[in-house]
Design a protein that fits this description.
about 350 residues; alpha+beta; 3 domains; 5 helices; about 15% helix; serine-type peptidase activity; protease; glycoprotein
Length: about 350
């Protein structure tokens, strides 16, 4: 395995300006085109407060109305656990107010489902293919002229029962291998930081219609998993160590992972300030090698903070948490880059 040292300098991050899009609404009074003057007037405090007040008032009226507005209330459910953002209590819509729980849960935010585009494993001329999870798991195209079913609702239910998982398991994400022979299904997600989380992953074979856990035991907390660009190999991270699987066996790539050493996954600094993602390993286009980042936080100063949890049994006293947080002038994580050749793996 080859190793490359990195030289990292501290850089300042500038926030880019965000240009918000506003929709025309016959109930909104405007005296001049908003789009052409918005950027110049956002600095006006009174104008900004007026915008927020009108938006909140508009949202409150919609919450107290029997009319359903597609751009505010988004209802989408399926057998795979898509969330329903419609407020649960509709018994008396005229007297309904927005609760803090509904606000924090995003009940009044439009739910736009991500589209995962895929390539045809044999015919590159078929374009615009993506995974559809409505009822069955299938590959379709935008023009609705192509359909390839990977697993039916009945197939998934039977596989769950056979694996002693129960047929009511819902999946947060479903990914197809590039050769369309396997599905990677994610459930039981627990958030860590902004972009990172623990999950349980299962692998479903399209040919055998069987489902098995990705890791050796269900107790393994997988922090991320992804297919190789070709075939159906999978790379994943458990307890800050990198693993690979070719569906016949699991190979452990690193053994140095721990509290201060992160292999193939971002530590807090790289996740938040550098990548904007927890992913810190990348497959070669031919799927034979993996380049991954290792960060060592041993010399990064620990920052302690209080966590107030009103649901805790001991809620009178806040819980103390800590995180490796490099302030200006102090040590950053020590990075190294490695290349793992899968052909040399045992």
């Amino acid at each position: 395995m080859e190793s490359y040292k990195l030289s990292v300098n501290n850089t300042n991050t500038a926030l880019g300006e965000k240009n918000e899009n506003f929709h025309n609404d016959s109930r909104t009074v405007r005296t001049e085109p908003l789009e052409s003057t918005l950027n110049s007037r956002l600095g006006d405090k009174k104008f900004s407060l007026l915008l927020w007040k009108q938006a909140a008032n508009h949202l409150h009226k919609k919450a107290n109305s029997n009319e359903k507005h597609p751009n505010i209330f988004s209802r989408y459910t399926s057998i795979f656990g898509k969330r329903d953002n419609t407020p649960k209590d509709e018994t008396n819509a005229e007297e309904q107010y927005i609760s803090f729980n509904e606000y924090n849960a995003g009940s009044y935010v439009s739910n736009l489902d991500d589209i995962t585009y895929v390539k045809h494993p044999e015919n590159a001329t078929i374009d615009g293919l993506y995974i559809s999870e409505e009822d069955d798991i299938k590959i379709v195209n935008i023009e609705e002229t192509f359909e390839h079913i990977l697993a039916t609702k009945s197939d998934i239910s039977s596989a769950l029962v056979a694996a002693s998982l129960g047929n009511d398991t819902s999946f947060i994400s479903i990914t197809a291998s590039p050769d369309w022979k396997f599905l990677l299904l994610e459930t039981d997600r627990v958030k860590i930081f902004r972009h990172s989380y623990y999950s349980t992953y299962y692998v479903y074979s399209v040919d055998t219609k069987k489902m098995t856990p990705l890791s050796n035991t269900l107790n393994d907390r997988v922090t991320l998993a992804q297919f190789s660009p070709v075939g159906h190999s999978i790379s994943f991270v458990i307890e800050n160590d990198l693993y690979t699987s070719d569906m016949s066996k699991i190979n452990r790539v690193t053994t140095s992972g721990g509290v201060n050493v992160f292999n193939a996954i971002s530590d807090w600094v790289y996740e938040e300030e550098v990548f904007g993602s927890s992913y810190a390993h990348w497959w070669s286009p031919d799927g034979t090698k993996i380049l991954f980042l290792q960060t060592n936080d041993t010399f990064v100063t620990e920052y302690k903070y209080s966590l107030y949890n009103p649901n805790s049994a001991n809620n009178s006293y806040p819980e103390e948490q800590s995180i490796k947080f490099p302030k200006a002038g102090y040590s950053n994580p020590t990075p190294q880059v490695f290349v793992h050749d899968l052909s040399s793996a045992g």
